Amino acid sequence: MRERLLTLHVILTWIIFFPAPVGLAQDTPKSITDSAGRSIEIPERIARVMAAGPPASILLYTLAPEKMIGWVRTPTPAEKSFLKKSVRELPEYGRLTGRGGTANLENVLRFKPDLIIDIGSIGPTYVSLANNVQEQTKIPYVLLDGTFTKTPQTLRLLGELLDVRERAERLARYADETLNGLHARVATIPEAERPRVYYGRGVNGLETGLAGSINLEVLERVGAINVAATAGTGGLSKVSMEQVLSWNPDVILALDPAFYRTVGSDPLWASVKAVQDKRIYLAPSLPYGWFDAPPGVNRLIGVRWLTSVLYPKQFPDSLQETTRQFYKLFYQVDLTDEQLAMLLTTATSKWER
Where are the alpha helices (DSSP H) in 277-315? Predict the structure, then answer.
């Protein structure tokens, strides 16, 4: 009997002073409602997160890089130099959603995420995909609204889910000031002073976004006029040179460096006012696009860039300092002078041959 009592005492002492490792404890699931109105059971503690597509991958990196299990697409060497060293060599697992999905469910299971997140449309197609993946893998799959103007709310919601509320609040406040504070300042600018802008995609610049295109949300937010809006509503569309000439934009924004390099000296574009005035700018794209591609939180710096470029009198703030601050806050890197010049030279200077 004495031996049994001693043994029990030792066991109780061990339990009190050496509790079970956290990883062995059973987390109590909690129920949350995502942006699509879906009720989902998620773990109390989330350590491993998989992003379903590029916008989700970027948002996850900006909020909680330590919870990333990999990349939808391996960053290029140029992109890696603008990202934290700790995430540069994470493995690639492909994308679950969007055009050209490459991740199969076996691969998803192999990476053992605690949670899958997707940010973008919350329409029926994406709800169905989320439900199917969740049902087959038994991994909770959360849909978040990717509408640009809802970025502050999305940051706060994901910050709550991942238990990084303080950081999420900092980013959300920045997003709110960018989307709403700057928008209010733009609203005071007379219509006559707002430039007519053409956004040229592709090597020849003859693809653009129509009225309501997600690709033109940044332009809409800064109150500039999308000349292609008169061609209809929808997404991206091919246009003719004749159409561009008839629109005669004041400013040209280029996505492709090849188009940016040639448009100013191309005889076909010579009569366009933006070319004559040399108001041609190349949207920065490292590590992610400022204006487009992908349509994520990365575009917040694009709003600040365009207000500075299009309305220099009303927004005289230093774009160099603004860029450094954004990269430090969101991408968690300190830009070198060379990196800053790489980003801003063609984005702010008048076109040079």
Answer: 300-310
| pLDDT single digits (tens) 113-134 | 999 999 999 999 999 999 999 9
Mean pLDDT of 1-24: 40
Say what the pLDDT of residue 107 is.
84
The CATH number that domain 22-181 falls under is: 3.40.50.1980
What confidence category does residue 102 fall into, taking pLDDT thresholds of 50, 70 and 90?
low
Axis crossing angle, helix 165-176 with helix 54-63, rounded to the nearest 10: 120
What does the angle CA 140 – CA 141 – CA 143 come to, to the nearest 5 degrees? 145
Residue 172 CA neighbour count, 13 Å, CB half:
16
Answer for the pair 75, 88: CB distance below 8 angstroms, yes or no: yes
Q: What is the DSSP letter of 227?
A: G
CATH fold match for the domains 22-181 and 191-348: yes
How many angstroms separate the Cα of 32 from the Cα of each of 36, 37, 121? 11, 9, 19
CATH class of 191-348: alpha beta
